Structures are given as C-alpha cells and as structure tokens.
Amino acid sequence: MRVIRTIAEMQAICRTVHREDKTIGLVPTMGALHAGHLSLVRSARSQNDAVVVSIFVNPKQFGPNEDFGKYPRNFEQDCAMLDQTGVDFVFAPSAEEMYPEGGTTYVHVEGVSEKLDGRSRPGHFKGVTTVVAKLFHIIPADHAYFGQKDAAQVAVLRKMVRDQNFDIELVVCPIVREKDGLAMSSRNAYLNEAERKQALVLHRALLRIQTLADTGESNAATLAQVGREVIAEEPAAKLDYLEIVDSDTLDPIADIGKGALVAVAASIGSTRLIDNLVLHGAGSARGPQTSN
Ligand code: AMP
Fold it and tell me: How far is the CA of 219 from the centre of ligand 1 (A)?
C-alpha cells in the first residue's frame, strides 16, 4: 500500500491504472476509520482492480463553530487497517494541497443541499460537493463508495453526479452498527460512558417507527410524531430534526406508501449524531441492522 500526498502523483497513478484497462474504486473518508468505513473498502476491493481510499478532514464542510479542530485523527492506525484490508493507495493530501491560496471555485447542488443537515449546517453540503468533485477529478474512479449512514449526503452526491455528468458510478453501502444498534461514527469517540448509552435513543426511535410501519401505519406525520416522542423520553438528547422524506429530493412526504427515508439528527451533550432508516412502503419496512 502506498501513501500519496500530492494531486499530481495521484493523477499520474490513475492514468497508468486506466491505461492498463484496470478499474479503480474510490472510498472518500475523513479518517478515524471504523468497521463502517471498512465495509465500503471491502466492497471496493471486491469490485475493482485498484482501490484508493482518501483520508482528508475537509475544512470546507465544517461550520465555524463545529468540530474541525478536534475531529479525531489517527493516521497511522488508519493506514494499518487499510493495509490489512487490501487497499492499494491512500490519498492523504494536506489542506494546502487541496485548497491552494486563491481558489474560488465551488460545486453547489442547489435545493437538496439545503435540506436536513444542509438546513442545520449551512454550507456543509457545498463543502462536501466541492471536495468530492475535486476528488473525482483527481481520482477518476469507475466506482465511488459512500455509506447510507449519511443518507442526505448520498442524495446530494447522486444529484451532483447526474447534473455534472461525472462518469463515476456511486455505490451506496448499508449502515454498519455496533452490537447494541448505535450507528458507527468517528464522532462516537466523543461520547463518554453515560452519553454512549443515551445515544441509543436515535436507533430506538427508528426501530419504533419501523415497528409501527410494519403494522401498516403509513401516515408520515403519525410515524414521525412517534419517533419524536421516543427521542423526548431521553432528557439528554436534544433533537435537531426527525423527518420522513423522499430519499432523492429530501422533501417531506405525507405517506410512506411508495417508500421513504426516515432521517434523525440529535445532540447528546455536545456530540451531534445522525441516523436513518429506509422504509420500503407501507407494511414492508427494512430497518437498521441490529449488528454488524
Ligand atoms: P466520514 O469519514 O465520516 O466522512 O465517512 C466516510 C464514508 O464512510 C461516508 O461515505 C460515510 O457515509 C461512510 N460511513 C460512515 N459511517 C458509516 C457506517 N456506520 N456504516 C456505513 N458507512 C459509514
């Protein structure tokens, strides 16, 4: 496994791989890797000749009062995990390499970028689409792997790929959870022991919604209300949103008959967590996995 620090070298490698008629799988990450990231890497490994994992804590997707400074960084450990998982290249540029002084070009997907996390975190998705578009130019992969964990991000990136004609297939991988149901996240490292237990309320709310949908309830407002009540039972949780939306447009829907995305964001102490559940229509919910 080779660690690549510069854009020029990464582009030269990709040109060589493609000249040999080999496929490239790209897994963009911000590091602090866990089993959720590794599931994306394994999918990439099984479907491509060469696998590139990018590790870049992207300053442009953090708001001024967010956790950019304290975001967990474990580069050595990340590399050991990726080496073991059969990765060929780790692309780990500096912020100066990715954003040299004077850059003024952004990629912004209007509309869908202002929904869910985009509403709570203004500018977040503009930062995400800008960096992912740059990564797609640097690493013109055949397949790029993203987690369903960040369902709104998936909707935004799908639209970016469509609108901008990126010749890259997005592959969305299921949410990997801890044994007790908590969705794996690099930010879970912020939680103390008590908060770690309190954080389970997000998964509990989704499970309650899934159970109710399984019994035939298809009214989105009713389902969302039940989910919000579950969150309210945990005094330590501060709900940001719990919404039932169309998984492509992220617009609210009235009825889950044709399928829906249930998305939740809440803070436990100072840690903001997100989770979601895809409902496949009235009476046929396929919910969060209960373990990995
Ligand atoms: P991040 O490093 O948090 O930017 O995540 C990099 C990629 O890993 C994103 O596509 C995430 O959606 C994905 N990911 C993060 N956590 C999980 C998880 N628990 N299960 C599946 N994918 C995940």
Answer: 30
